Amino acid sequence: MSDWFKDSVVYQIYTRSFKDSNRDGIGDFGGVIEKLDYLKDLGVDVLWLSPFCDSPNDDNGYDISDYLTIMPEFGTMDDFDALVRGAHSRGMKIMMDLVMNHTSDEHPWFLESRSSRNNPKRDWYIWAQPSQGPGEGFEEIDFDQAGRGYAGRARGPRLSGVDTGFLPNNWDSYFGGKAWEFDPQTGEYYCHIFSKKQPDLNWANPEVREEMFRIAHWWIDRGVDAFRLDAVHHIGKPEDWPDAPVPKEPWGFCLYKNTPETHAYLQEMNRRVFQPRAVLTVGETGGTTPESARLYVDSDRNELDMIFHFAHVHMENPNDASALTGLMSQWYAALKPGAWDAQFFSNHDLPRQVSSFGDDRWLRGKSAKAIAALLLTSWGTPFMYQGEEIGLPNAYFPDIGDYRDIHALRGYREGLVSGEDPELVMAVFQTRNRDNSRTPMQWSGEANAGFCEADVQPWIPVPQQNRHINVGAELAGRVEYAPGGSIGGAGILSWYRDLIALRKRYSVLRRGAYAPVNPNHSRVICYLRYLEDPAFTEDPARSKELGHSSPVQSEDQPRAGEKTLALVIINWTGTQADYHLSPRLLSQAEYLDTPPEAVKDGSLSGFSLEAGNYAVPGTPGPGEESLGGLCPDESGAIQGGTTGVADFAAALGGDSGEFDSDDDLPETGRPVLGSAPAKKMRLRPWECRVYLG
Fold first, then answer.
1. Residue 284 annotated among the catalytic residues of the structure
2. Which of 425, 483, 558, 667 is least crowded, fewest Cβ atoms below 10 Å from its Cβ?
3. Which one is catalytic: 230, 359, 545, 624?
4. pLDDT at res. 568
């Protein structure tokens, strides 16, 4: 299929929280249609719609009761068709969030399946008889005593007049407890690796696979261009449901994720659906390593185009630049030959990225821009989540009653029951619950943030402490980044627009190879993007779709003015960082076969600053470039020098790092757009720079 997705920016819409158009306090397709022009102006190419099929909403739509019907809260099939037409007419594609591992327990298939052991749909789900004991070497433990990680088989629930035996195996559920639920009507257990209201489908049954293939074709016929495949790494289960080994992976998930059966089913679906219909696919595959990920995305294996992997969003220290660079490099090295990556820092299940990676209190604007710079200049397709383009932070509701995430609330109650300190339980809950990313999109400073009308109760409250953060304020330039303070100039939304436009303008930021520079630096992330073939050109139709202003030349005639190098420098901390950028470091960058022309002469003059969250506009005058592009003050003198630098460092909470004295530091002022990088620079907190050459 075409690899158009490599040039795209994907924007995830959590429809329930995006925009309410019919006064019921729940976001809907009508609200998305209202904001299509906003999304087009932002510059995104693909709209990923979180699950919208009919559902009782035990897990916010990830428990489907009818695959071919729209959830009534979101609208009708006519509304969906109008949304597809509106997106396509604006050059944007639609990605459907397809849940194939499980259904709702209210789906007609499951109602039939559980009705009797002889029902034709019995084998559409995973049923097993009780086992006879806890397993060799394990004592008998009741169901309600066997928490996550218990290696034996727990005794089933004690029901009046029913012998439930022992669970079929020791598998755990992601949502707590064990992965089996006893059904008194038929005397067997069904498997649910998520909620007990989300029974797992039996993909070993060819009838199930045929039906899922038919459903995918049906939605493609309806206008869907891409699929995000939820929990797809769980669809294949090993035969006979063996116990997880002892010692085993935490929670006993290792036997039902990323199995050989899953790969076989995906290859069949690719052959039957994905390839013939030329749709984009990205799979949710937790627990993959850089090496095992190739099994999903290697182009020779014909499974998926991309996967979501999660090591970087679960780092022990998210501000360890060397650790994050290491992860980026590992995944690049593993996937670069014949595969592709997906880049993201947040989604509907994760905390807000400015809260988990940045500084959502004092430097929200600067840190939000730094995260955006990494997202939009890294190797792979960037996935944005709604609200990140205005730097929305976590909800931090003071009242537990304002939260809706039932699974996080269960953990909160369990923490209190266990006797843990209530303040600590609340602190952990506030940072980790999924409602942090599911509060309403904030469109204006009006009541309910413009998500719904003022006299309507939204399904989840708008965090009152964040009301000043909204699209209207960003567009009007009234951007407040800290309590009691504001700054003028371009805000986060403008930064996202500009970076997306820069990415579309220069193919090196989309298709360029990746080479980390000084990867062991603990505070600064630095890397090169470079075109391995200087004569690289794009598909003419895709070039037009991306809005390129320059005409596309033939392959032996590179586009005039095409940049072949990008240099990205990001201070990944909230304190200043000294950085020494030498041509030697650039020429010795990992994965770089030959030194770039821009640094062969021993200088950095071949690069010019295209974007920086501390940069100022202007053209550097004679002599300024050699000083690293410093910004003149009103008198025309270069800012910095030896006076005040140490005091400034102390105020920022940093130290001189690599440099012994103020005299050893050529650059201390704000860089000028268009200037070359200095060999030695003192980066401000969360400072990011994108140079092209």
1. yes
2. 483
3. 230
4. 97
